[in-house]
Batch of 2 targets.
Target 1
Amino acid sequence: MTDDSVLELRGVEKLYGETRVLGPIDFTVQKGELLTLLGPSGCGKTTTLHIIAGLVEPTVGTVTMSGRDVTNLEPPHRDMGLVFQNYALFPHKTVFDNVAFGLRMRRVGREEIRERVMRVLDVVGLPGVEQRQPHQLSGGQRQRVAVARAVVIEPQVLLLDEPLSNLDALLRKRMRLELRDIQQRLGITTVFVTHDQDEAFEMSDRVILMNRGRIEQLGSPEDLYDRPESRFAAEFIGETNLIDGKVTKANGTTVSIAVTGGAEFQAPLTNGAGAVGQEVYLMVRPERVEIARERPADAAAIGARVTKRVFSGDMLALTLTSADGLEIVSRKPSVSRYRDLEEGSDVWMMLEECRMLPRDDTAVAR
Amino acid sequence: MSGERAFSRLLLAPITLVYLLFLIAPISFFLAMSLFRYDAFELYIPTLTGENFARLVTDGYYRDIILRTLKIAFLTAAFSLLLGYPLAYFLARTKTIWRGVLMFLVIAPLMSGVIVRTYGWIILLGSEGALNRALLWTGVIAEPLKLLNTEGAVLVALVHILMPYMVFPLFSSLASQDPDVERAAGTLGAGRIRTFFEVTLPLSKAGIAMGSALVFTLAAGAVVTPALLGGKNVQMLGQQIYDLVLSTLNWPLASAIAFVLVACQFVIIGLYFRTGKAKAGVV
């Protein structure tokens, strides 16, 4: 445990009877960082958050906050602020009384409560609503009140349980940046739970990708996108081409992978896989599939035909099929050099930044 | 759209007719009757007079009955609330098999008639009853206690008989609370007791008002239970109306008493709707 870690989970597991819903999982959260638990529903991310908050007791393992074991502490004795998915505001109390609640429980003086509530409402961009009832507020305003109520007590850790999922698409995008801004201004250590990859990427310092109760991969958004370590990680985050292939050469740091039709591609060695003869996946992100009209100097270019063209405004998705039946999707900005590509156009494709992924892995259930 | 509305109005026609014939008409009838003059031979003489109401205020006998009825109805509601709230709370929060078992026990009394249940209490409370025998046998008392024909007996039985009317509104308002709201109070530093008084109790206000209004009005109008368990010692308004209509044949006075009873009940229901309206906006 480093000096900067505020929260640490070690060997945490949750079993309901014989059914293991979580773990074992281990991770630490550094002071001031925003760490996201990302994954499909049922992956254990909310259970993890509830274990941190003290709402669920882990079957095994410990939760440590700033060096103190809090595993068996009830929620009121943990120093955490939790923002619920449905906000869980007190419907019978005014905005002021909602936000003041945690301070009253801590026996803060009236004057100070007043001052701190007003200040935090200002921080979340809601001045002047303190006398309203929650039902008189819009969804976005309620969300801010919930954040204000959780941060006004200046908890060591702020926990956010899918706080944006009940907002409409436009507001959700704006609140992402705003939440991140509030979090950074207050410098508050935060654990954020979401199933939305865009949210996770735009807001987080680090992301934990979870699957079936386990940590699939932990890293910065760039790590997860550029260097997925499993088929699940590659498919859950962003779009991806997965091509069946076989390792033909291995030389320390890179491998050669042969795919349908015999074309070979270079990829860096990933987590242990890569013995010669091994069946693997070749992975390439669609925006990293380059397209040329004329045969390029690059020897690895493969001749192909556009077999499908989907226009979505800013982007074009082009399905390219080689003479050998290799089918790869390329995503390109809809600028003139790509826009006049039609179904049936003959092109050359070049696969850049290929990755190798092991086969013994499950597909992501979407 | 208008066809749909016409259809829903048509559906309301039978119940409207029933209410008009059997609620509005009788109430209007006894309201008018309460203002008529009593006559031993004619039953009543249709000349307007306030003497029936005056008698309820000036005649100590009737005044006592009115006050006793209000007191017993109030106490019944209060005790039902105190005893029913923990039960409703448990029912609303438990996920175990107890929920089904206790729910059945709460409903079960409704399946037997009020007279059966009242006789049950007579068996328990009589001077030869189970309770007295047990106390005599254990030596706690030397002489049988006089339990029947007391206000206490009426109160205990009314609380028992009317308990489901308290528990169900409380249960439904407690069960419909978002459990995350209590959890939120916990994460903000409130212990279980603080959470109850700050969050759970105020959020169940509608259930408290509904249950109390129901139990109060039903207790104030009770006839059989006070008659059998209270006897002549514990006269309540319901029996008085019954006696005046069937034995004394003083219909105008009976109507005046009925009017007082209905007025009390309307006040209570009115109070309920005021709290209900305040709640309705909160979702």
Target 2
Amino acid sequence: MPTTDELNQWMRAVATSSDRLAFAALFRHFAPRLMSYLRRCGSPDAQAEELVQETMVILWRRAVTFDPAKAQLSTWLFTVARNVRISHLRRLAAGEAPAASADPCDQWDADLQAADQALGPHDQLLAAQRERGVRRALSVLPADQARVLQLSYFEEQSHARIAEELGIPLGTVKSRIRLAVAQLRRLLDGFDS
Amino acid sequence: MIIEHHPADEFLVRIAAGSLPGGESLLVSTHLEGCERCRDRLHLLQAVGGVLLDEIEPATMAPDAWVRTLARIDERESRFGGAALPLRAKASPSPPLALPGGMTWPSSLRDCKVSRWHWMGPGMHFARLSMPHDPAAALFLLRIAEGRHLPRHTHDGLELTQVLHGSFDDGRAVFGAGDFDAADADVHHQPVVTSGGECVCLAHVGGSLRFDGRIAATIGGWIGM
């Protein structure tokens, strides 16, 4: 598993010198994970393959916008893949051909989170610091909370369906999410101090 | 602007995960534009997505995935130019309809089609919003004059409201600019616009909306709920 520094170096090489070897290394690491993520979100194989390719194309074309001080690469790529998937589903819903009639990067730009842009430089730095603690915080979350959180991200399930699957009331799903988020925030604050 | 009412964490988790349906997601995005606290939480929840992506069991790709990705890049570069394109600056959208002085139009609404203001009673107007990819979403803007109240109503689904300008009091609490509210079917409320000028809200209604009384029912039918 490559380190954060390695991933960031590869990304810089892609951004500054269109380095295809660095891109290949990023592809080897992320493409199979993105494939797994998109499948679990309910994309059939062919669609998941398409969306992984599209996500990696955006990584290539938008590498210059990635700022390691602002976010971890896996977080950045997670949001890219999520947006690629949403745009794809939206185009299908609107009855448009999924073919790329416009540069999908434009689509992605339009979808860029207001959230990312509106953080001040100080908050961005803080965000990157806190992010490194997230892995640690997640690993110590009580199992039932972690499970609900994971299902929320990966199974494209409404919270009502998660409740059904786990055999717990909807209110419990919501309260576990609330507890999980509160617990994550508490743990991160603890790591900071 | 002090924001006192925020979307519950479950909304932010679903925004981060990308599973919140169009209409609801629009309401929460509009809230996020003005709320640093929720943007901070969203960042945390996106980082959770990043960690989960890192830790997921990798799946096997088709053998030609790499070659097809490179072909896609070449095709894209020949049509749209090199990789290091600068981000296009987002023009701040100009409001598609008349707004009270001092109110800005949220950029989250830039892709919506917006009707003109329709009169629905003295001092009360509404406009329909429609999202290109989710035209059926029951989204609308309400513009209510100071001291006026909406007809008392209930809904079987969740009613989400984001206050864009001014404030209202629905008997449970006062909601001011930037505040977000989710009222479920148990809530039977009659929002009153408090002093300090007109109130403009963005609302999304799941299920059907019912107003009390004959005239109110007519209005409800006219809005198309």
